């Protein structure tokens, strides 16, 4: 028996990296998974690709309507899609880049919740996992736009958790440290080595290690957990 038998899940940014690992693990655990992305997504057993740009309210409405029309419900939303794009400090970040990064990482999460919560409300339950980052909790010299968005996701999560707790809709955030994905592989070795050196466990995490945390938060195992921020960072934030 899977931990997500009978559940319907929507995972964003699911073409690769952490989102793909979440979609695969959820499908293994019995969920019917809709895997949304702007890039092509590979179909697999119990994984249905969905074209979804998280910055588009129309796109969200269409994705959620399609799922609810077919299954009558949406149990789980994983707001994983995210970009870094601009690694600069405030003075080195163009306004356009700042706006784009915040619109994917923070506004996308907001629109996603707005689209999914009415369906969860009707069903009287739901679990939402929003992707923040260790850079949503503490400062780092650079990636100003990313930090702004991820910090916003952290507190928007707590706000939504409190707002919808009485309706049994749980909202939690996940805060990965350095995880080996295409996003991180595109960064300089020097940057990645610096983060690993500052990580007590002395290594990168794997997408599966983050997916396992999402599984806990999505499943009924975490039925009294809401508004929490779960770090998956090899001890980085414990220092
Ligand atoms: P990735 O770059 O490997 O994958 C992200 C996916 O999101 C891609 O498939 C991309 O096409 C998709 N995406 C980008 N913009 C989109 C949009 N507007 N609409 C829909 N999909 C879109 O990234 P990774 O590493 O798997 O990251 C996943 C999440 O985890 C992100 O929110 C990221 O900020 C967060 N994170 C990752 C860390 C890491 O070390 N890899 C550390 C902390 C947080």
Description of the molecule:
The protein is α/β, with parallel strands linked by helices and 239 residues long. The protein is 43% helix and 16% strand. β5, α4 and β6 form a beta-alpha-beta unit. Bound molecules: 1,4-dihydronicotinamide adenine dinucleotide. The site of 1,4-dihydronicotinamide adenine dinucleotide has 28 residues, from α1 and α5.
Give a count of the beta strands, DSSP E runs of length 2 or more.
Answer: 7
Q: For the record, give the distance between the C-alpha atoms at the N and C termini, rounded to a whole number.
A: 39 Å
- Give the biggest beta sheet: 7 strands, parallel
* SSE arrangement, N to C: EHEEHEHEHEHHHE
- Overall number of domains: 1
Q: Work out the helix count.
A: 7
Task: List unreliable stretches of 5+ residues.
Answer: none
* CATH classification class: Alpha Beta
How does the helix and strand content classify structurally? Answer: alpha/beta
Global outline: globular
Average pLDDT, to the nearest integer?
98
CATH homologous superfamily placement: NAD(P)-binding Rossmann-like Domain
Oligomer state equals single chain
